[in-house]
Amino acid sequence: MRSRSAVGRQSSSRRGSASCDRTSGGSGEDGSGELTRQCRLIHNTSKHVNEGFFGRSENIRAIDRRHSLEKSFEIGSVIGKGNFSTVRYAVRRKDEMKCALKEVDKRSLRGKWFFVENEVEVLAGSQHSNICLLIDAFQTDSFYYLFFEYAQDGDVFEVVRRKGRLEEREAQRVIQQTASALSYLHSNSIAHRDVKPENLLLFGNWKVKLCDFGLACTVLGPLSRVCGTPTYCAPEVVSQSGYGTAVDVWSLGVVLHVLLVGQAPFRSTDRNGLFKLITRGQLKLFQYPWTTISSNAKHLLRKMLTVDADIRLTANDVLEHPWIDT
């Protein structure tokens, strides 16, 4: 697959508040502490400036109809659904490679085709062992068909929900690998903007790969679009004060909290209340099970969940922290 440089895209404000790309198990904002999958938030009324999106992708091949795919792939049953897409199990015929086929209905995108085309271009140009591999991409007049490598062990979210919380050594492996992927992306001025356990795939022996680049963009300057998954949004996103790649480190800090104790650090019965807690950033790490967790892990968490993005750890800093680099 070929890659091209990103170009700036500035969109005008439109009516509408938010849209979700993934649904299952409720909003996760009820303050109960129960870990649930959450909808992805995209505010259509916030300013969309300094976002570097690729134009039309050169890596998406045109086909007449979905049936044409069956010459190269055996397409199986549905294994996941979102508001805009359906995911199916598939096998590439020439080498029996297991794949996940993401089918995206173009009509549901309501003109925001560039999110999908940009995801393809970012992944086509990314070469990192902790970033999910895009196998191939096609489109008809009505749908996009994206083939990804298949994660046989599911995602980190399901492991945490099943186990309640992870052991520190397991959490360390997840954070180290994700931080490595983010360090790579940030070195290329790319912000992921939706880091969460659901987007961390598992490939055996705790091999972690970051997926779902639907909100990723090249950072050309301070960003303003309110997007991501509410529980994992950084303070500068919800306050619309301008943000950059540091938002991914905040999100990864929330992930670390979830891995260690099984719930997010900031929880409320409504979204406004949640956002107030996020902007305050007050952590409570004194009660059980925090009393059983190492001081190095808690130190890293505090440094990642620092409200001031200018002094928050970078992804490189996370990799060099004593809790990781041991």
Automatic annotation (TrEMBL):
Domain of life of the native organism: Eukaryota
GO molecular function list: ATP binding; protein serine/threonine kinase activity
Disordered, as annotated region: 1-35
Domain Protein kinase as annotated: residue spans: 73-324
Biased composition (Low complexity): 1-19
Coiled-coil portions: none
GO biological process: protein localization to nucleus
Keywords: ATP-binding, Kinase, Nucleotide-binding, Serine/threonine-protein kinase, Transferase
GO cellular component: cytoplasm
Reactions this protein catalyses: L-seryl-[protein] + ATP = O-phospho-L-seryl-[protein] + ADP + H(+); L-threonyl-[protein] + ATP = O-phospho-L-threonyl-[protein] + ADP + H(+)
Family label: Belongs to the protein kinase superfamily.
Record-given protein name: Protein kinase domain-containing protein
Species assigned in the record: Pristionchus pacificus
